[in-house]
Specification:
alpha+beta; Deoxyribonuclease I, Chain A; seven-stranded mixed beta sheet; 5 helices; about 25% helix; globular
């Protein structure tokens, strides 16, 4: 009798666990959703005086920076990259990292700024609205000198219970674009993502399109991107890139200037180890871009590199930053033929504020 009672209790506990786990999995799958394509984005600005439009023949600068939701200080390792952490170390750590990241960009004073992994409400970032934080900090740095900006959401996860000791939680994030020129309109374009279970680990991938009038009926079309990383074989990021390239080519053929920047999650140098040395661990999540990806388009990849002093744009956050860690360049730009590039570089921060270093590019809009 006693054995039967114990067996019954064990069975009830087991069934309860099955119901809890099954219910949670159902919640995760049911809650999964994607934002609609061609979503118009609101455009706002800091300042009261409308700035001038960009001019043909004038030099300008653009930066891109994946700030890693304010968590990735140099001593941080993320659980999905082989590390142990799932959240920022503290609320103060998020603020310190964001301040460092935005101050780094403000010192460069670019005309255009692209940011990725900006949380608006996240367990992992202690519910700091990093979007409004960025607007406040950069608006103050530019002394309220007329910054236009738009934001596209690319992440809205249900509450993720893993790791069990400190769950990643529920998080909303996106990509943020700033311009010292007037932005007439902005659009969110949904990118293809994998259809299997791995879609739960990826973001609601997209790129934003910000339209900046230049003169007459022509525009500078600015793209902010963050392509897929946590996928089964890496091909989906290539498909995403091809969609973007086709979009840029169409805009160029319509007479516009096109610039894209962001986190490609691809080895933009082809084999970064040739420049930064072999790593103590091998990872395959960032593959080179297949050459055929650019067939039929005139868009050029700008991979920032100073061959005399090469600096990587990204580290694999499997633990604190250290010599021999897997590093590479995944952040860069794309330009149409009527955009003349005079230089592009990675700004070395020692990964102090993020698992990425910011990248910048100097360019001129040409008349051709």
């Amino acid at each position: 009798m006693k054995a039967k009672k114990i067996l019954k209790i064990v069975l009830c506990v087991f069934l309860a666990l099955v119901l809890v786990v099954g219910g949670y999995l159902a919640y995760v799958f049911i809650d999964f959703h994607r934002l609609p394509d061609h979503q118009e984005l609101p455009v706002a600005r800091v300042g009261r005086t409308k700035p001038e439009a960009p001019k043909v023949g004038e030099p300008y600068r653009i930066t891109s920076y994946n700030v890693g939701f304010g968590a990735y200080s140099a001593d941080y390792g993320f659980f999905m990259d082989g590390g142990t952490e799932s959240r920022a170390f503290s609320q103060d750590a998020v603020i310190e990292n964001l301040l460092g990241a935005f101050d780094t960009i403000a010192e460069i004073k670019p005309d255009l700024m692209l940011f990725q992994e900006i949380d608006t409400d996240g367990t992992r970032s202690y519910h700091i609205n990093e979007y409004t934080f960025a607007v406040a900090q950069l608006g103050a740095a530019y002394q309220a000198n007329n910054l236009y900006y738009d934001f596209a959401q690319n992440y809205d996860s249900p509450y993720l219970m893993y790791p069990f000791s400190s769950p990643h939680g529920a998080n909303k994030a996106g990509i943020l674009t700033f311009s010292s020129f007037p932005i007439d309109s902005a659009l969110r374009r949904s990118l293809p993502i994998e259809s299997g279970v791995t879609k739960l680990l990826d973001l609601d991938r997209c790129y934003s399109v910000s339209r900046i009038p230049v003169g007459g009926e022509r525009e500078l079309v600015l793209y902010n991107l963050h392509l897929s990383a946590y996928t089964s074989d890496g091909t989906i990021a290539t498909k995403q890139l091809r969609m973007l390239l086709d979009d840029m080519q169409s805009e160029y053929e319509a007479g516009n200037w096109c610039i894209a920047g962001g986190d490609f999650n691809k080895d933009l140098l082809g084999n970064s180890a040739d420049y930064f040395g072999a790593s103590d661990k091998e990872y395959t999540w960032a593959q080179p871009i297949p050459p055929e990806t650019f067939e039929g388009v005139e868009i050029q990849l700008i991979a920032p590199l100073d061959e005399a002093n090469p600096v990587p744009s990204c580290r694999n956050a499997d633990g604190p930053y250290h010599a021999g860690q897997y590093v590479l360049t995944v952040d860069g730009f794309l330009v149409s033929p009527n955009v003349s590039v005079s230089g592009a570089e990675v700004i070395g921060t020692g990964f102090r504020y993020s698992d990425h270093n910011p990248v910048c590019m100097d360019f001129i809009l040409t008349s051709s």
